[in-house]
Amino acid sequence: MSQPLPPENRQPKCAQCNKKPVSAEYRPFCSKRCADVDLGKWLNEGYSIPGSPEEDSNSDLSGDRGGEMAADD
Length: 73
Prior knowledge:
Blueprint: H1 32-43, H2 58-61
């Protein structure tokens, strides 16, 4: 089994393409392109955390209004 590299000898890989070494200018990415691809995923909701299905928002409006007045009150 090989020995792990010491921290000063490690060359981190790009967080997007996982191929090229990280550039200090675009850290944790290798280039502006990879940084822009990641930003696009965030803006288009490409990343998500799995969870329980969202409940219908109309169920919150039935019954108690929580002290808020409607426009027709």
